[in-house]
Amino acid sequence: MMLTLPTAGEMGVDDRLDPAQSIDGGARYLRHVKDRLPDSIQGEDRLFMAMAAYNVGLGHLYDARRITEQLDGDPDRWEDVREALPLLQKREWHSQTRHGYARGGEPVIYVRNIRRYYEILTYVDRSQQQYLQLNELNGEAVDDDGLLFEIVPPIQ
After folding, report:
1. Which residues does 55 contact at the CB level (< 8 Å), separation at least 6?
2. What's the rounded Cα separation, in Å, for the pair 101 and 91?
3. Cα separation of 96 and 78, whole Å?
4. Is residue 155 part of a domain?
5. For residue 53, how many C-alpha atoms fall within 13 Å in the half-sphere facing its CB?
6. In whole angstroms, what is the distance from residue 31 CA to residue 84 CA?
7. Would you say residue 6 lies in a domain?
8. How far from 142 is each of 121, 135, 146, CA to CA, in Å?
9. Which of 58, 115, 121, 135 is most buried as measured by Cβ atoms within 10 A of its Cβ?
């Protein structure tokens, strides 16, 4: 999780190239951003908007939410806000915002890529579980070498 220099300082990350510090600082910053979103944003919408704000900045996300309202969309729904974010690249829109120009298409792609990667990981995990269950039903013992995918423990 890459952090800008000012954000790294804010999160107490001394070495942005140190994976452990960077991941820890990035996770704490994502939580910080998520906690600053309005309570009216719920569920997955809250997570997706936090990820978008992590990428483009909270101010630009708020600008996109205001544009969403102008377009009669729901500023609490990611589906509507993701349509407004790319408009921050257009002068006719960003000139009316508090935080100005942003590459608003990037957070949309960023969130989409994370969602897709999560879906892949979920599929792999589900496939592993089904494989183990089938072997168990067939009375076949499965040792660690029989796993389709190596189970990697979390970093302590």
Report:
1. 106, 107, 110, 111
2. 8
3. 21
4. no
5. 25
6. 23
7. no
8. 22, 7, 5
9. 58
Half-sphere exposure of 134 (CA within 13 A, CB side): 9
**In this structure, what are the phi and psi dihedrals at residue 57, rounded to the nearest 5 degrees?**
110, 140
Report which residue type is found at 78: W
Q: Which residue has the higher pLDDT, 150 or 14?
A: 14
Residue whose pair of structure tokens reads 């001394």 in the numeric block? 14
Encoding tokens for residue 15? 């070495």
Cβ(44)–Cβ(56) below 8 Å? no
Tokens at 121, concatenated: 């990981």
User: Count of domains in the chain?
Assistant: 1
Beta carbons within 8 Å of 21's beta carbon, 6+ residues apart: 13, 14, 15
Is the full-model pTM beyond 0.90? no
Q: Are 106 and 112 in contact (CB under 8 A)?
A: no
**CB-CB neighbours of 69 under 10 Å:** 13
How far is it, in rounded angstroms, from Cα 28 to Cα 50? Answer: 12
Q: Is residue 70 one of the residues assigned to a domain?
A: yes
Q: What is the pLDDT of residue 40?
A: 98
- Domain, as residue range, for 42: 37-146
Q: What average pLDDT does the structure give for the chain?
A: 90
